[in-house]
């Protein structure tokens, strides 16, 4: 009887040992969530296709964090910056909302992502949101609005950048002038 039990234990150990690589590949949902939280909290973690393949719901996870006012500004900022990897209507809507958030860092990042991902098609609502922040109470947000505007193309954008370049805010003027110079170089 004792030898049968020992044989069963050995067989079980062997079976579990062979199955362990397969078991290791399957993570418990809580582990997947913890991994995502670690990724979001790590300052030098960059989003890659491999990472997003690990979290097929990454866009929704990032949207949830970016919009959650109970989260830290840092985590919301990181999530907002990573939303630049997604060019969807849900991201566009969230970014438009975030341009009026109480946290200036978040407003600035939302503007930059909006400009980079959604302004190039001449989206009037995106342009209006960016232009509204050109008079933001926070100087860094105003400068980020100019940077966001610089992602756009066309005579309306260039006219607005020219007006800012001639304006009385030296920081905004410098950014607008640099953007206009880069646009002129690109067309040559």
TrEMBL record:
<keyword id="KW-0732">Signal</keyword>
<dbReference type="Pfam" id="PF13646">
    <property type="entry name" value="HEAT_2"/>
</dbReference>
<feature type="signal peptide">
    <location>
        <begin position="1"/>
        <end position="24"/>
    </location>
</feature>
<dbReference type="InterPro" id="IPR011989">
    <property type="entry name" value="ARM-like"/>
</dbReference>
<protein>
    <recommendedName>
        <fullName>HEAT repeat domain-containing protein</fullName>
    </recommendedName>
</protein>
<dbReference type="InterPro" id="IPR016024">
    <property type="entry name" value="ARM-type_fold"/>
</dbReference>
């Amino acid at each position: 009887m004792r030898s049968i039990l020992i044989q069963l234990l050995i067989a079980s150990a062997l079976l579990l040992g062979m199955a362990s690589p397969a078991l290791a590949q399957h993570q418990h949902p809580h582990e997947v969530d913890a991994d995502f939280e670690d990724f979001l909290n790590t300052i030098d973690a960059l989003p890659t296709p491999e990472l997003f393949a690990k979290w097929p719901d990454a866009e929704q996870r990032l949207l949830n964090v970016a919009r959650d006012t109970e989260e830290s500004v840092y985590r919301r900022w990181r999530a907002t910056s990573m939303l630049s990897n997604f060019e969807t209507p849900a991201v566009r809507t969230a970014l438009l909302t975030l341009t009026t958030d109480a946290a200036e860092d978040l407003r600035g990042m939302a503007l930059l992502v909006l400009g980079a991902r959604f302004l190039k098609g001449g989206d009037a609502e995106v342009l209006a949101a960016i232009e509204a922040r050109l008079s933001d109470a926070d100087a860094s947000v105003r400068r980020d609005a100019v940077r966001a505007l610089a992602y756009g193309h066309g005579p309306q954008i260039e006219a607005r950048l020219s007006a800012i370049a001639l304006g009385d805010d030296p920081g905004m003027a410098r950014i607008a002038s640099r953007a206009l110079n880069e646009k002129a170089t690109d067309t040559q």
